[in-house]
């Protein structure tokens, strides 16, 4: 299965009917039965500590304690920061070999609401650092397992965690069936509008999101809020506030050289944008640049924010994030993009229903690669801490729907539907996997915790 934008599987054929493609998906079950996705068994254990040593190569050393502090907050935090570890496990499992553009780090907190260029609020995947061409089931397994692990951390029972993972797969399968009946253009234009799905009853309430955040996203100018929140005036000029160790400027003696490097990288970034975006950015100039720690898995990589201002005093905040090789590519082979910033940007545009208008990529003189986007453009994060169990299930349905829509863009939904079939077999398999993997995640969490407590890992 392949779209013109992803990879072509040996099973894909041009110009065949939906029924024939569905039958093709059914036939692949003979090579990789649905039940083979159940449970979790490793042929070879991964050395958790050694993998972390590999993943911290060339990171900013002084930030590593923050990375490990965040990883050790809970088994779910550990899971969020360990896409590489899970990839080392998934590559050992049976595969359908139906490849498409995968998110690569598909856990429940990498979904949320954001504003489209038309300022509608849609629900979608919102993190693509690890995006790569990969088997479709890798994303679904990581998403299902995240509900089992997060559910356990919230105090839900094992059965409830199982049912949440089952719900993710059920939503994914049923929505994939719907996408199989759509034209390629209908799929490409499909969006999940938060307001519409609340009104439709598919999400019974908005408690998985902060209602105030939705209202702010619709009405407010986000960069004005960020200007008030993140800056102060110095000698009549706006400057980003330092909040060490999470937000900081480089040492004073290095600031001039750092700013010069940032300007050159910015000029390279602008060239990756379309003419209309380049024209818009001509109205702005860089006023300040600071480093900013983000996420769990990205701590220690070169990330930060740029403050730009127009001649009329309008602010624009851009975020730059270092882009490294996808952890999936370590096990599946290097993709077609030599530049990892471009890999992230192009992957996001393939998967997301509407991407940031300022999404682009660049590199510095040292060869470090980055992608750039707006900072917090009307983003709405899921309020996991506020979810009761019914809201948790509702959110699971939303995530399964969004993942199906993403996969339908570069995969063949008829083949995927044919492979999953019309019964609930895939739901049972994914739920079984999720519970088994939650146990593996707990074991790996405890292993790393012991290594850190015994100071066997240099940080």
Structure, described:
The protein has 18 helices and 12 strands. The chain has 459 residues and is an alpha+beta fold. Strands 7-8-9-10-12-11 form a 6-stranded antiparallel β-sheet, with helices on both faces. A two-stranded antiparallel sheet has the order 1-4. A two-stranded antiparallel sheet has the order 2-3. Strand 9 (303-310) and strand 10 (315-322) form a beta hairpin. The chain is globular, with a radius of gyration of 22 Å. The two termini are 44 Å apart.
- The strand count comes to 12
Helix content: 40-55%
Mean pLDDT: 90
| Helix/strand class | alpha+beta
Q: Please tell me what the overall shape is.
A: globular
Strand content: 5-15%
Number of H- or I-type helical stretches: 18
Spatial arrangement of strands, main beta sheet: 7-8-9-10-12-11
Q: What count of structural domains?
A: 2
Separation, N- and C-terminal Cα atoms = 44 Å
Order of helices and strands: HHHHHEEEEHHHHHHEEEHHEEEHHEEHHH
């Amino acid at each position: 299965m392949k779209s013109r934008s992803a990879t072509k599987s040996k099973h894909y054929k041009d110009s065949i009917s939906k029924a024939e493609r569905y039958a093709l998906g059914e036939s692949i079950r003979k090579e990789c039965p649905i039940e083979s996705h159940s449970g979790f068994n490793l042929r070879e254990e991964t050395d958790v500590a050694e993998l972390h040593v590999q993943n911290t190569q060339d990171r900013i050393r002084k930030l590593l304690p923050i990375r490990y502090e965040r990883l050790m907050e809970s088994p779910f935090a550990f899971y969020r920061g360990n896409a590489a570890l899970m990839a080392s496990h998934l590559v050992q499992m049976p595969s359908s070999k139906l490849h498409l553009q995968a998110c690569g780090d598909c856990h429940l907190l990498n979904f949320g609401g954001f504003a489209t260029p038309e300022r509608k609020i849609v629900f979608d995947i919102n993190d693509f650092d690890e995006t790569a061409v990969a088997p479709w089931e890798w994303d679904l397994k990581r998403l299902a397992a995240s509900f089992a692990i997060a559910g356990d951390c919230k105090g839900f029972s094992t059965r409830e965690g199982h049912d949440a993972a089952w719900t993710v797969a059920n939503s994914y399968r049923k929505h994939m069936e719907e996408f199989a009946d759509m034209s390629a253009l209908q799929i490409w234009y499909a969006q999940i509008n938060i307001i519409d799905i609340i009104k439709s009853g598919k999400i019974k309430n908005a408690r998985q999101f902060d209602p105030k955040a939705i209202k702010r996203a619709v009405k407010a100018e986000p960069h004005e809020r960020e200007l008030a929140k993140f800056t102060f005036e110095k000698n009549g000029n706006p400057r980003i506030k330092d909040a060490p160790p999470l937000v900081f400027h480089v040492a004073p003696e290095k600031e001039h050289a750092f700013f010069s490097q940032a300007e050159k990288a910015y000029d390279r970034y602008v060239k990756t944008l379309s003419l209309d975006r380049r024209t818009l950015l001509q109205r702005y100039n860089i006023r300040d640049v600071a480093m900013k720690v983000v996420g769990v898995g990205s701590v220690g990589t070169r990330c930060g924010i740029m403050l730009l201002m127009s001649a009329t005093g309008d602010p624009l905040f851009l975020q730059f994030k270092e882009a490294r090789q996808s952890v999936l590519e370590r096990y599946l082979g290097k993709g077609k993009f030599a530049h990892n910033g471009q890999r992230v940007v192009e992957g996001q545009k393939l998967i997301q229903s509407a991407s940031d208008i300022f999404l682009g990529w660049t590199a510095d003189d040292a060869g470090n690669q980055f992608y750039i986007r707006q900072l917090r453009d009307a983003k709405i994060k899921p309020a996991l801490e506020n979810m009761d169990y019914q809201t948790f299930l509702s959110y699971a349905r939303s995530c399964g729907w969004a993942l199906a829509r993403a996969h339908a863009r570069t995969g063949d939904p008829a083949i995927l539907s044919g492979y999953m079939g019309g019964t609930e077999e895939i739901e049972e398999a994914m739920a079984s996997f999720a519970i088994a993997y939650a146990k593996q995640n707990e074991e790996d969490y405890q292993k790393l915790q012991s290594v850190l407590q015994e100071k066997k890992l240099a940080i």
